[in-house]
Amino acid sequence: MGPMSGRIDKSASMLRAAKQTLRETVVARLGGELDPARVAAGTDQGWFGPESSAWKIHADACLLVGGVAALLHQTLHPLAMAGVADHSAYVEDPWGRLRRTSAFLAEVIYGDTELAEQNVASVRRIHAHVYGTSPDGRSYRADDPELLTYIHATEVRAFLRSYQRHGEFPLTQAEADAYVYEMGRIALELGASSVPQDQKSLDECLGTYKADLAFGSQAAEALRFLRNPGLSPIEMVAYRGIFDAGCALLDETEAELLGVGRERRRGRTLRSGEVASCGLRWVLGTSKTTEAARRRVG
After folding, report:
1. Which of 42, 84, 169, 282 minimizes the number of CB atoms within 10 Å of its CB?
2. Rounded CA gap, 151 and 186, in Å?
3. H helices within 58-198, ranges in order?
């Protein structure tokens, strides 16, 4: 082996080490590694299966951008925001909350039928104890079918937009409609009503909530946190691109209500979503949960 080969091997080794360090840092910030063993131990292909759009979309790291967009959108519903503010420790433990949400979606989508049903039953039990009064005097319940539908619709739209714009292999129209239909099962099992069945009905569904949206004090506090969730200056460089990319997935009216029009324009102009998604895919690699699910179903 000559000097040049030795330098190449050394550079490759240093790159692998740097990538591993970055991966450990990112995974730690996202709340820790998910346990693929729960998905691997199933007995059937679950609610969706390897040919579903849900399996395809949720294997891509670009959905982190969609997650930010969904959270931004959800802050605008006063009742949804009141439930988060009153019953969630998102400021004290944001990454733990993110990990629990990620684990729920991963296990329902990639797990077998029994694991999906266990996760849904657990969330329904939690929702039964989440209720209160919003700052404007209205009562809310986490198991309110209309509120569940709003949360579901914002997430599905954000995930789908993120994947269609930044995913490796965008879906066809039929596959995109299938994704909305597939994810509707989760919402229905959680107790939602009038769940969208395709992209057209998804847009129509969210349109019915526009009159309910408002930027109140609790939304302002959540936005301040989402802009800077307690990261180091170096971490903020990477997170800023993800945040701007999430803003770019919002409709103009939502961005105006939140006051993130500048971030939305910057995210689109700089193509922050493409940059962030490529970086996340490189750092995180193939999802261990997805690999475990594929081994289970052969």
Report:
1. 169
2. 12
3. 63-74, 78-87, 94-110, 113-127, 145-166, 173-190
